[in-house]
Amino acid sequence: MEIVSENLLLPCFILSCFFIFTTVRFLRSSPRSATLPPGPPCLPIIGNIHQVGKLPHRSFANLSKTYGPIMRLKFGRLNTVIVSTPEAAREVLRTHDQALSSRNSPNSILSINHHNVSVAWTDPSSPRWRLLRRLSVTQLFSPQRVEATKALRMKKVQELVSFVNECSEREEAVDISRASFTTVLNIISNILFSVDLGSYGSEKSAGFHDSVLGGMEAAGRPDLANFFPFLAFLDLQGNSKKMKLCTERLFKVFRGFIDTKTAEKSLPNNPKDASNSDFLDAILDEAELDNNDIEHLLLDMFIAGTDTTSSTLEWAMAELLSNPETMAKAQAEIECMICQNGLVQEPDISELPYLQAVVKETFRLHPTVPLLLPRKAETDVQIFGYLVPKDAQVLVNVWAIGRDPNVWENPSRFEPERFLGEDIDVKGKDYELIPFGAGRRICPGLPLAVKMVSLMLVSLLYAFDWKFPNMVDMDETFGITLHKAKPLHAVPVKKKSPLLKHL
Hints:
The chain has 503 residues and is α+β, with helices and mostly antiparallel strands. The protein has 17 helices and twelve strands. The chain starts with a helix and ends in a 9-residue tail after the last strand.
C-alpha cells in the first residue's frame, strides 16, 4: 500500500498543480473575456481569417455594422481590435497613443529587417526611432525645408504640364497614375539625391513605379505568416519574395548614390556647397547611421513620398471626371484666381477654398492607407469599457470613418461642398478626417504631400479640359495603400491657357 501511495504521489501533485493553475487562470481571464470587444464567432485554428476578403477595409466596415465601432477579430494566433468611428480613433491615437504606438510588423517587412531601421515600423520608444524621426522632420519636412523646395516643385509640375500638352497635341490618353508618379518621383529624388530618376513614358520610370507598388502590395496583402509565424519560412503567398525583389532594386539605386557621395566627401577639396546639400548629404554626416541604416531610411522616404501622392492625385482626377459639374466649379475657381498673372503659383492654392475642399473630399473617400499602419498594444488598455489585450493588433479603419453615415451626410457621394465653411483639416486633430494618422505616429510627410497633390491638380485643371470615353471604374486594389484596380487614362484637351504659353 505504501508503494501504491508513493507511485500516486507525483501524478496527484501534478494534477493538483494543473487544477490550481487552471482555476487561477480562469478566474483571471473571466472578467477579461467578459470585457473584450464584440466580434463574430471564430472558427477553430483560423479564427476569422475567412472573413477578411480581398478588400479588408470593406470587410471590416461591413462587420462593424453588426458588431459595433470597436470590434474584435482573431486571425490565427493574432488578436485584432478594429475601430471605425472618430471617437474610438481618438482613444487609440491620442488618449492611449503611448500604449498603442508600437507596431505589429507584417512578415514581409520582417523578411528584409526593415522593422529595425524604419521610421514607419521601429518602436517609437527606442533612441533609434527618435533619431530617424528627427532626421526626417528636420532635413525633409520642416516648414523651412518645404519652403526651400518650392521652386523645385514648380519646375517639375511644369514639366508634367509640358508632357500632358504633348499628349494633347497627339490626342493621346494620359495614364494619370504613371504621369503623376514620374512627377513626384523627380521631386522626391531631387530632394534626396539632387537628380531626376524618372522621365515621362520611359521604362525606367515604369520600373520604379512597379517596384514601389509591388513593395506596398507585399506589405499590405493578407499573409498566413502574419497569423501563424511558424509558417514564415514557407512564404506561402510569396509576399516576402516579392518584397525582397522590389526593395533590392531600390537598394541597388540607393547604394550607387551613397558610394558616389561618400567618394566625393573623401576628396581633399570637396567642392560641395553646404547650402546646396540634399537629404543624403545630410544623413551621411550622421555618425550613428551606417550604410544599411541609410538605405532603409531612404526606402521609407522614397516609398512613402511617391506612391501615396500619385495615388491620391489619380483618385482626385477619377472623382472629378465622374462628377463633371464639380470639375467645372473647381476649374472656374482656379481660372478666376490665376487669370491675373497667368501662372500657377503654389501660394495661390491657399486662396482656392473649393480646390482645397476637393482634395479633402478625396482624402475622405479614398484615404491612401485605409487601415493606417497596424499598431500593437504594449499593455492592456481600456477603450470605452472594452479591453484591448496586451500584444493585440489595433487597426484604425479610416476608410470606414470617412464613409460613416453618422458622421457624414450622403457619405458615399463626392461632395466637396461639405467642407466649405467648415474648419476640418487633415492634420491629425479632426478624427473624422485622418488620412495621415494622428499622434506621435502621424505621417511626417503630410505638409509636403498636400502641397504636391494640390499643385499638380491645380495645374492639370487650369491648363486642360479632360475627356473620358466611358464610365470611370472606381474599383480598388488593396495593399498598404489603396489603388485603383484599373489605371485611369484620360484625354487632355488643351485650353487657351496662359500657362501653356511658357512651354
